Amino acid sequence: MTYVPVIGLEVHLQLATRSKIFCGCATTFGAAANSQVCPVCLGFPGVLPVLNRKVLALGIRTALALGCRIEPTIVFHRKNYFYPDLPKDFQISQYDLPLGRSGSVEVGERRIRVHRVHLEEDAGKLIHKEGEDASLVDFNRSGMPLLEIVSEPDLASPEEAQAYLKTLKAILQYLEVSDCDMEKGSLRCDTNVSLRRPSEELGTKVEVKNLNSFKSVGRALTHEIERQGKLLEAGEKVAQETRLFDDARGITLGMRSKEYAHDYRYFPEPDLVPFSLTEKEIEVIREELPELPAAKAKRFAASFGLTPADARGVTASRAAADYFEACVKAVAGAGLRPEPGTFKAIANWILGEIARVMNERNLEEITALQFSPGHLLELVQLVDSGKISHKMAKEVFAEVVKSGESPARHVQARNLAQVTDAGRIRESAQAVIQENPGAVEDFKKGKPRALMFLVGQLMRRTQGSASPALAQETLRELLKENKR
Ligand code: ADP
Ligand code: MG
Ligand code: ZN
């Protein structure tokens, strides 16, 4: 392909506060339509907005975590447009003086720049009922606090855009500034994409609005890149516009031609005076920042000998990172030596079997699983000590993750521990050799599969409890003696 994509994302985040951004109305999700409204968020004439202190604190917390510079003076602007879900006919937002600027997000090995972060209020929600010739409007969402996070056009593929969004979501979850629930619309995303020939200037961008899953971000971008590619290959121009993604058909559709800042007649919100935060106030918020995923991944790699990829995987969600650290504590608590092999095994379980079951059951967080860090450590130790094979451990996991039983107890109660007693295995091996002269002949003729057959017989005889490695070793030895 002669063209390469250039992508920038605008992410809208609903901040987790109990009341709205400029009034005292509740923000509870799923309340009866128009039950959480007042004259302020319904845009009655003469009312005055008052900024919610918590909204400001969460906004600054996020801006600082993304490495942004905080604007010395906080100013709100009116963004004027007409739409039935916007009773005031303007949205209170920020314009040329956003809350924060010039941050970045580390995505794998790359640093994606954050252009700006600003506060604004959400609009109401239109409800179009099938078969009815009228639309309804629910103003509960009107005045919900939003933080918009705008990236630079630094993303180079749909996959990278998804990875950026995932990393951003993880950071926001670590910060506890939002529930980040994409299905509820707490985290949604507009994507901007253009094509250009390498080293040429940026091409004309198209904005695809309101995507609310990682999957639809990927699909919308992939489709849009293909659509623009075809236009350019045919010598046509890409129109600068705003498009919508039709999830069912997997295509983007023209919605409106692009609007420019001057279309909105921005002017400073006269009812909210500009104000400043002191350096000290900002520092207090900075000091409260938690350790973020990138820093945690580096620490996990350095302290526990995880590979960078495993460390990133384990820290991708705060719940998983906390789980891993609880396992580390359990290692110390059990008086075990902190071996890198043990930590690696723990990470492998979290990123392997545990992730698989979570995926299967559609669970967001590891904490939703009935499988404690102590249980995981038991499982790792059962394998480590040779009591059960890795294969058996997976089966045990599949059982106890359903029942919540302790893996050690499960193995003991069902007599699953493999027989590592050399004497008993030798006895069984001798019996198997006597009972299977054909296979022994085959082995002598140099057929390696015969040995596997005999191992199988031994496992059957011991009802699968023998250590397979020891079984094979013992049989091989006996057969060699037999040969001579
Ligand atoms: P607008 O004035 O249309 O809102 P902005 O400059 O604010 O445009 O950018 C909005 C988003 O579009 C940002 O995330 C930015 O990174 C992205 N963007 C800007 N120019 C391009 C481009 N040529 N191709 C792809 N994305 C772009
Ligand atoms: Mg913009
Ligand atoms: Zn209100």
State the gist of this model.
Helices cover 42% and strands 19% of the residues. By secondary structure, the chain is α+β, with helices and mostly antiparallel strands.
Write structural notes for this entry:
The protein has 484 residues and is α+β, with helices and mostly antiparallel strands. The chain has 3 domains: 4-286, no CATH class; 293-413, no CATH class; 422-483, Arc Repressor Mutant, subunit A (Orthogonal Bundle), CATH 1.10.10.410. Helices cover 42% and strands 19% of the residues. It has 15 helices and 16 strands. The chain has helices spanning 53-65, 158-175, 214-233, 279-287, 293-304, 308-315, 318-333, 340-360, 373-384, 390-403, 407-413, 422-435, 437-444, 448-461, 468-483, and strands at 4-14, 69-70, 73-74, 77-80, 90-93, 100-107, 110-121, 125-128, 135-138, 145-151, 187-196, 206-211, 241-246, 251-257, 267-268, 275-276. Strands 2-6-7-10-1-11-12-13-14 form a 9-stranded mixed sheet. It has a 3-stranded antiparallel sheet with strand order 5-4-15, with no helix packed on it. The protein has a two-stranded antiparallel ribbon with strand order 3-16. β12, α3 (214-233) and β13 form a beta-alpha-beta unit. α2 runs antiparallel to α3 and α12 packs across α14 (448-461). The longest helix has 21 residues, at 340-360. The termini are far apart. The mean pLDDT is 92.
Mean pLDDT: 92
* Low-confidence sequence ranges: none
- Determine the strand fraction and express it as a percent band: 15-25%
User: How many separate domains make up the residues?
Assistant: 3
User: Helix content range of the residues, please?
Assistant: 40-55%
| Straight-line distance between termini | 67 Å
Query: Largest sheet, order of strands side by side?
Result: 2-6-7-10-1-11-12-13-14
State the major sheet.
9 strands, mixed
What general form does the structure show? elongated
Rg, rounded, reads 30 Å
Tally of strands: 16
Which structural category fits the helices and strands? alpha+beta
Please tally the helical runs, counting DSSP H or I stretches of 4 or more residues: 15
List of distinct ligands in this structure: adenosine-5'-diphosphate, magnesium ion, zinc ion
